[in-house]
Amino acid sequence: MSTTTHASTQGRSLWPAVLCWLTVLLDGLDLVMLGAVIPTLLKTHHLGFTVAGATSVATASLVGVAIGASLVGPMADRVGRRAVLMFSIALFSTFTIAVPFATSVTMFGAFRLIAGIGLGACLPTALTFMSEHMPEERRSHASTITMTGYHVGAVIASLVAIWVIPDWHKLFYLGGIAGFILLPLVYLKLPESKAFLAAKEKDDSQKVSLFQPSLMRANVGVWVGCFMGLLLVYGLNTWLPQLMQKAGYSVSNSLTMLFILNLGAIIGLLVAGRLADKQGVRPTILIWFATAAVMLALLSIKIQSTLVLDLLILVTGIFVFSAQVLIYAYISHAFPAEVRSTAMGLGAGIGRLGAITGPLVTGGLVNAGKAYPWGFYFFAAVAVLGLLAVFTLPNEKDLAKAHVSH
After folding, report:
1. Structure pTM?
2. Exposed/middle/buried for residue 227 (C-beta within 10 Å: 0-12, 13-18, 19+)
């Protein structure tokens, strides 16, 4: 790194990085909250909760996140990253605190849907801002480091759930209060993105459209890659313990495997971004999806050695979880600032549809008695489709140069 670049990096405030990381942490908190309280809701028959009702509420939450992620981009590209992030955090926090006050399962689901819209808008906006805050040569690392907040949030929520359950209301109060604490800090310490302000100053004739022909190849590759990537993340996080039990492993070992998988995810995020900044984002994503496909296929083989199995799951986590995050890094490099947030939000929104599809398809395999080994065959095939999608992406630097004149 040159002296000039180093000085500019040192001179940047840490507040944007911290606040974007904490915003993504909210997503991780929410990931665990509903799953942690559903057993208690069913056991106590709260509001008349049934398995079907719990499934509907969980689906409504994910649909809300997909809607929020898809809608936020044009708003953030029009009015700014900062204002949209504040609105999104406020919406999520308000309706998360409202959940315990629901008087019916339908109202419970409606509150989760609206909270999900706010939450879905938070992550792509935070990632866009973070990528624009950092120098171009560190954008990939910025994306992957920010996403570690997601896993830290999930761990915090898991630990709190162990402490407060069966008093499940406290989990939702935690999520909402955390957002309201974050909100004034964002107001006071988060400046507007300089890239957004520069893009706003351009003449209309100079601005690009996300759906213009020169960007459509990148759009489609990003959408398919995000869908496949989040299908893997949510499918594995939801069903890995059950798949391993069907393979003949013990319950305690299966739960340990889920922890190891997510430990691998954090390691992968720390490594992948740095490598992408050095070697290029597209080549790194190709390596990540290809290795993920191989690892997932290997998990279909019954392994006797616990050490070998744990190492295999660790490596699987390293490559599966950060493959999709690297696509966010690709967006931050390849797409012009005036459509970057829209591209990020649409990719995240379509990816969330994969997050809904993964658990549904895998659950269907479990119900059909074909969870093992077909669940891992399915996941490996999904990783291959993600790999093929990334093959279609133009090189991020070439795409960026093609629009630099704008």
Report:
1. 0.79
2. buried
